[in-house]
Amino acid sequence: MSVAVGGDHSSTLLRRPFAVHDVKPDYGGTVEFLFAVRGSGTAWLAERRSRDLLDVVGPLGRPFPLPRDPVNCVLVGGGSGSAPLFPLAQSLRRRGCRVDFVLGATSADRVFSAITARRIAETAAFTTDDGSFGTRGRVCDVLGRVIEEARSDAVYACGPMPMLRAVTAVAGSHGLPVQVAVEEAMACGVGICMSCVIPVVGEDGITRMVRSCVDGPVFRGEHVRFDDVGTIPFDALGAPGWKGSSAARAAESARDIA
Amino acid sequence: MSVAVGGDHSSTLLRRPFAVHDVKPDYGGTVEFLFAVRGSGTAWLAERRSRDLLDVVGPLGRPFPLPRDPVNCVLVGGGSGSAPLFPLAQSLRRRGCRVDFVLGATSADRVFSAITARRIAETAAFTTDDGSFGTRGRVCDVLGRVIEEARSDAVYACGPMPMLRAVTAVAGSHGLPVQVAVEEAMACGVGICMSCVIPVVGEDGITRMVRSCVDGPVFRGEHVRFDDVGTIPFDALGAPGWKGSSAARAAESARDIA
Amino acid sequence: MNADLRTRLGSLRLPNPVVTAAGCAGSGRELAQFFDIAEIGAVTTKSLMLEPRAGRPAPRMAETPSGMLSATGMQGPGIDVFLQRDLPWLLSRGGRAIVSLAGSGAGEFGELARRVSEAEGVGAIEVNLSCPNPADPSGRHFADDAAQAAAVVQTVRSHARSDVPVLAKLAADVPDVVELAGACVAARADGLTMVNTLRGMSVDTRTLRPAVAGGMGGLSGPAIRPLAVGCVYRVHEVFPEVPIIGTGGVRTGTDVLEFMAAGASAVAVGTVNFADPSACVRVLREFTEALDARGVSRASDVVGAAHRPGTGV
Amino acid sequence: MNADLRTRLGSLRLPNPVVTAAGCAGSGRELAQFFDIAEIGAVTTKSLMLEPRAGRPAPRMAETPSGMLSATGMQGPGIDVFLQRDLPWLLSRGGRAIVSLAGSGAGEFGELARRVSEAEGVGAIEVNLSCPNPADPSGRHFADDAAQAAAVVQTVRSHARSDVPVLAKLAADVPDVVELAGACVAARADGLTMVNTLRGMSVDTRTLRPAVAGGMGGLSGPAIRPLAVGCVYRVHEVFPEVPIIGTGGVRTGTDVLEFMAAGASAVAVGTVNFADPSACVRVLREFTEALDARGVSRASDVVGAAHRPGTGV
Ligand SMILES: Cc1cc2nc3c(=O)[nH]c(=O)nc-3n(C[C@H](O)[C@H](O)[C@H](O)COP(=O)(O)OP(=O)(O)OC[C@H]3O[C@@H](n4cnc5c(N)ncnc54)[C@H](O)[C@@H]3O)c2cc1C
Ligand SMILES: Cc1cc2nc3c(=O)[nH]c(=O)nc-3n(C[C@H](O)[C@H](O)[C@H](O)COP(=O)(O)OP(=O)(O)OC[C@H]3O[C@@H](n4cnc5c(N)ncnc54)[C@H](O)[C@@H]3O)c2cc1C
Ligand SMILES: Cc1cc2nc3c(=O)[nH]c(=O)nc-3n(C[C@H](O)[C@H](O)[C@H](O)COP(=O)(O)O)c2cc1C
Ligand SMILES: Cc1cc2nc3c(=O)[nH]c(=O)nc-3n(C[C@H](O)[C@H](O)[C@H](O)COP(=O)(O)O)c2cc1C
Ligand code: FES
Ligand code: FES
């Protein structure tokens, strides 16, 4: 979902994207999101008082896909990226999945809802960069051990791009499928501004610059070309180096129509 | 004084000027101003709650000059222009002056502090454009009568330019001195932006485009070239038609140094 | 009372003057989640090129005071996919399409216009003159050179169906916008869209590097509205008969009034769609209310009012 | 830790890079009520002409999103009154003066420079090239024509004292700011100030008439910062040795960082003084804090950082 910040006469025009943390039926319906103060927009949000109105658009984008069978899932979150893992954990639990958490942050005060994590999950491991809470280090330092101990079947991850890349690598080395939710800067959140694109390989093997707000933010980790994020890979559809034959283009067009 | 509106990240950059209504020693010092919601800035102000912080610069400009002797003064206000007349009335009363009010507004709900006016002043006459309070019409429709009945010796006025022009004319026809406080649009309020100029005749007979924020907002009514407000009179200092001799310029320079 | 909102851009008749700006409304489908796109005047497509295009690397945008910088590099599917996939969808929903074209030279622009002319139902063609001209060594835009711009417009006009109006989209950061407008009109543009984004940059003060990959980006949003209104005003003064789509920072219904008073016959909403996906219909509603509040019975009466002494309407 | 803030504009040495922008700080006296003007780098005067000048009729300003439009018509007392009255006052308070000049042709600019040269204590001369050129039938500015601009700069340089640097003040809305900068440098400008206000307009939607008397005004304030930073970046890229005063929407200390990273050696605060009369000292304090937070020991190390790969500083 995305939230307008700064009020009607604000000089900050763009919405701020946040993950839905929880949806409850209380008080005629409540949507919860967790956020860390980072810059002017989140500082403004933090100043809001109860009963103030927020201008919200959502839900946006594709949610985490749920497994058909009750498998073992490890959920990996970095910083505020932990937020969407909690409702995911609940849904997985309802399907009978085992859930284990690995949550990382820069320091203890940035760890999101450690207690809730412990309550929902079978196990919850924490890492902080400065060692002020849990293990000192990064989530991937403990992820391999958790996967082995929990006999995980699938990995879900949300957080900054370098973390997602590392998690995808660890999952790959254990032969596990991984779903990652990316946090690319987003101006509109609804697919019209083209600011949130990342290179993703399609089922057809063609790399496309896809909008993470509508085609994501959840992708299969193996499909994201992490090394090329922030670039246009030369072989991406429509890149200067891309040699699309008319046939390929016709196929593209047919695919999109379907 | 001038007030910043819209908060830190507001897209409305400029301050809004207001007259000081009252200054009290309560709560460690209170400055009061009265305002009408007109556009976005005043709408924002109206939404403030008690204990919110306001960014204020003031007092600014020249206040109404007070007479040395206890004379009879009539105070004429239009719309929110009534605000500064109340502290003026108090000061005049403290000097033993008789005070009479003539307050005009578009309609009853725009009349400022009728009760206070009646309490402070010997008499208080009200006019509204629609007749919903007091006499239907403009302040000048009743001003002449008030001047005669109160045997006024001096006139003070604050409000929109056309009203000030009319009040100055009425005062002139009764041979009374008149002090007017103008409400020109002001960007800075401290004399640096040159947006608030009006043509005023100096003691030396030369018309200058003077800044109403620092050289005013109070002027002697007779000195303001009301008919030329919104223009540059051809004979104003530095106007295309102005033929300043070197001697006149030298005098100007000497005057300003003094 | 409800004012008559109809407006015309050459032979194109629109039910009301609020359209989307090129590149700020996707294919129309995304916004259709938020409102019925038949309700607004028209949808302007992003600028289409002959081939699919991957655009520029991220970060592609940065927020600026009351505006944003963007550099998407015109990522898009290419003209053929648009004509086969997006246009029929738009028409099936009752929408009107203004098709924006971007070529790397007059020849490519001509080919684009030819392909568009084979399709049915295109309301107008908009020629994006703020594309880098590959023939110019310093990478300037077609719009930076009135003669180059006119050559492009002329080619598009001669390849397009005669019943489809051709609008030249001008930039504000050009040597002389009135001269540029004149050159495009002489090259038989049926109307003008003003203005595109202005070249600017911002520095990320955490890294001290340009905030948008590649350095320069295009500035848009309410911040540029006075520049856009100024261009419309100056061009309408000299060419009062040429229809103009005003664009640049439209946020509210009174902004539509401002552009129309300056001389625009229609107004395109761009960046503000990103902040408020239902902006177009909100702006249209506010505009209607603003006309009603002023007792104006026909929107077209407002066009150019700021040029007329008195109270305009 | 407190960073070394000193900076240089040609032969002019300033204790810190924060100066006032021309026409946005009165004579210095008005702001002296709010802070000690010796504390800031320098005070730039409003543009002075030979004769006193009454300026343009009211309304002279209009608020715009994150900016304002103004048209004061360079009201001022004339050069002689300035030299006799304001300059001595400024120097007596320990201030440094950058004197901005506006003439109606190269001849008048030369005479202005000559008179300034008779005075003691002038830190630098700034040549306002955004004055209408009376020789141009369409009333364009000197800055719109690089050759005209260069002629003015050359005349001022030859009439000014050789130990007083001459800065050419450029506009953003010119055909090609890099070309203009090059012409001024070739005409021996010692530095450049970028940018002046951009021509724009707004319509008062109550009256449907232009909000500023005369129609067009100059757009300033944070809204234009990306355009100003873009000009500084592009010019510094080509002329890295030429000192630049960056100006356009500076509001905070990180804005100073942004301009300096783009290539400015000093930064002028303009419109924001109107909103906050102590803006200059606040900006200076914030800038110092920003350097400290980044562990930068010399402000001059930041100059041009955005052009260097890596993290800049
Ligand atoms: C899909 C998604 C989900 C997110 N979920 C959460 C969440 O649940 N909780 C939470 O605290 N944060 C979340 N974030 C990050 C959050 O959006 C940013 O912290 C926020 O936008 C910062 O705004 P600001 O004005 O405070 O910062 P500024 O730095 O002042 O913002 C300037 C600009 O940069 C963008 N930006 C800044 N930081 C980020 C970032 N990390 N990611 C994306 N854009 C950024 C802003 O949107 C804005 O456009 C999420 C981001 C994305 C993309
Ligand atoms: C010296 C002086 C004293 C004033 N005292 C009072 C007072 O005590 N109480 C009160 O209610 N009002 C007073 N006003 C008028 C008050 O400043 C305006 O109502 C206010 O600025 C409107 O701001 P806005 O954002 O709501 O309106 P908008 O119309 O949105 O403002 C747009 C711009 O126009 C300017 N502006 C709009 N209306 C006026 C106006 N009438 N006079 C000057 N500038 C205007 C604003 O300052 C702003 O720059 C005074 C004005 C002046 C010059
Ligand atoms: C992200 C983005 C993409 C744009 N893409 C195009 C485009 O493809 N073709 C075009 O002519 N203009 C394009 N524009 C310019 C807009 O159509 C519009 O002219 C400009 O942004 C000013 O309007 P605004 O301030 O309402 O956004 C784009 C603008 C933005 C912000
Ligand atoms: C009211 C006003 C008056 C100005 N007067 C002058 C002037 O006399 N000479 C000049 O070179 N620039 C003048 N400028 C331009 C500023 O010096 C500055 O270049 C411009 O406003 C951009 O900076 P800002 O956004 O910080 O205001 C003026 C600007 C304003 C707003
Ligand atoms: S955020 Fe605008 S397209 Fe994704
Ligand atoms: S309001 Fe700025 S000079 Fe008076």
From TrEMBL, chains C, D:
PROSITE patterns xref list: DHODEHASE_2, PROKAR_LIPOPROTEIN
Binding site for FMN: K46, S47, N128, K169, V195, G221, G248, G249, G270, T271
Pfam families reported in the protein's UniProt record: DHO_dh
Cofactor needs: FMN
Transmembrane helix in keyword set: no
Localization of this protein: Cytoplasm
Domain of life per record: Bacteria
Active-site residues, as the UniProt record annotates them: C131 (nucleophile)
Residue ranges the record marks as coiled coil: none
Annotated cofactor note: Binds 1 FMN per subunit.
EC number: 1.3.-.-
Presence of the UniProt keyword Flavoprotein in the record: yes
Residues given in the record as substrate binding sites: K46, N128, N196, T197
Pathway: Pyrimidine metabolism; UMP biosynthesis via de novo pathway
Family indicated by similarity: Belongs to the dihydroorotate dehydrogenase family. Type 1 subfamily.
Function of the protein: Catalyzes the conversion of dihydroorotate to orotate.
Name this protein carries in UniProt: Dihydroorotate dehydrogenase
Encoding gene (name): pyrD
